[in-house]
Amino acid sequence: MRVFLSYTAADKDFAKQLSSHLSRRGCDVWDPSDQLFTGDNWSLKIGEALKESKAMVVLLSPDSMKSESVRREIEYAIGDRNYAGRGFPVLVRPTEEIPWILRKFEILRANKNPAQISKRIASILGRVA
Hints:
Strand order of the largest sheet: 2-1-3-4-5
Number of strands: 5
Largest sheet: 5 strands, parallel
Order of helices and strands: EHEHHEHHEEH
Distance between the termini: 8 Å
Shape: globular
Helix content: 40-55%
Radius of gyration: 13 Å
Low-confidence stretches: none
Strand content: 15-25%
């Protein structure tokens, strides 16, 4: 199952670790830092990836909550039936700016290591696939 990973550059290290663990658990992770290149139409490629994905992991931090791109990606996933039951907010760094709609989901805490978080996500995806 394709999993869209939404985050900002400030959270890239954690994103890379989590992406690696999810991949080892059989997820096809779409990570913008691996898929977007200079000269690409980023909006188009992100839009295509969102359409093709069936789950989203969004890393929550003060930086990501200020990002218009992350907020748009969240809005897309929340409104698309393909993502039903497959949204995974992960709190990487404390922030008070979590959108109200994400507060309805179980927010995973990054103080658990990426391997534990990926295990939880893969387990849920296995049940709803």
